[in-house]
Amino acid sequence: MLTRFGSLANTLDASCEALTACASPAIANRILAARATHLAAETDQIGRRPLMSDPDRLDSYLRKRLAHRGKEQIRTLFLDRIGRLIADECVCDGTVDESAIFPRELVRRALELDASGLVLAHNHPSLDPRPSSADIRVTHRLAEAAASLDITLVDHIIVGASNFSMRAAGLLR
Length: 173
What we know:
Blueprint: H1 2-5, H2 8-13, H3 16-22, H4 25-46, H5 55-66, E1 73-79, E2 85-93, H6 103-112, E3 117-123, H7 133-147, E4 152-159, E5 163-165
Helix pairs in contact: 4-5, 6-7
């Protein structure tokens, strides 16, 4: 498997389909369980201090969550008033090239969790991390909806061959 995927990190990031193509289902399940355990530990660690205080760690965390997926998935990281992670939730499983974001539902969930901030993240299975015009539009709609209730959309990060931060690119108002 190391030969097939090139490294242990790539093996752990591989999709379930890719793992079962080159290993038994039992071995693939063990690797998936190891990834889940690692992500749980990483989630615990990342939640101990303000999320945006270590952008490299956040990028790594999001890559582990999203890079291996063959279809788009949207995740929302809900933050407390000082920017620590309250929850990381999948809000939509999409198709190979699109997914739906409903600002109303994200803001409703933020209110349920008493979140003060949000980081939206999704992957592009094409590996091109550049945002589409639809990505930009929905980001602006979510930022406006959240701001009306004193919730900040901190960033929208797209995971591809690299990560693209809408905040860093100046696309988030």
